[in-house]
Amino acid sequence: MDKKRPAPPSGSPEQAPVAQAHVVPLPWQTPKSPAEDPDATARIKATLEDPAYLQADEDIALLQSEDLRGVRLQLDFLKTDYGLRTHDIRHTIVVFGSTRIPEPVAAKRRKDEAHKRLAKDPENPELQRACEIAQRIFEKSHYYTIAKDFAADSGRLCDAYGGGKIALMTGGGPGLMEAANRGAFLSGAKSVGLNITLPHEQYPNPYLTPGLCFRFHYFALRKMHFLHRARALVAFPGGYGTLDELFETLTLVQTRKIAPLPVILVGRSFWERAVNFEFLVDEGVIDPEDKTLFSYAETAKEIRECIDTWHVQAGKPLFRASGDQ
């Protein structure tokens, strides 16, 4: 008499039988034999090599097509958002500034080289212009030191009181963005870079936290991520890119599309020449109170004080010992 199989313990499911590997290949595991159809091999090869046979997420031409622009926009946002959430980055201090302003040592070297070239051909207008620009860049190179010192100071506070949940964020490029990432890097804090794909090759700066440098296809999604977690925006002297990012922020705050945040313009003498805010008020195209959307600073200490004061007055200090905000 056969023994009955013992019943499984009460409340536990029966173990499913383990599927055995097929010894004999399944019908679809081998192509049709040429013995059955001499042209079968060529036809199958053509099918396998046809772009239509590519799996959708492996079809680069499809993913880059006009029809999938919406999908690419979504991916541009989601990948970075996923990465920042994985690293538990909840808030950021964003720094903008020129890619063309290097550290003082490099700026002086370029200035000296420009003067040497001009000395060999003093009547050359192009060399004269290059010499003037090199001199002006050198005069602004102290902003590199200010950006680095500010980021180092803020980085220590981010790490100590933000619980690692506040990070320094830039565009990830050279110049003043590099300076800010470098300061955060030297302080041991998290340092984020949002790079962008451009027609010419570019490289991220070497002071970004591994896993926290992201490359975007769309400027719009990159700018969205600049502000998505921002608790402060610091704008150093810069060109079109810096102006674009600055005015995007001012517009969103002015129109109440985002919550207010401190916007600090570093280098009043530069900004008052670059943008005549008084003229805009006088012309009636912005209101007098729109000038209160930003403040000026000259040193790393002043930048920190502007940010701290703004958040304290708003009743939500940026740095909390618990790090859970």
TrEMBL record:
InterPro entries: LOG_fam, LOG_family_nucleotidases. It catalyses: AMP + H2O = D-ribose 5-phosphate + adenine. It comes from the Bacteria. Residues 1-39 are annotated as: Disordered. One of its GO terms (cellular component) is cytosol. Coiled coil: none annotated. Its EC number is 3.2.2.4. GO terms for molecular function: AMP nucleosidase activity. This is AMP nucleosidase. It comes from Roseovarius litorisediminis.
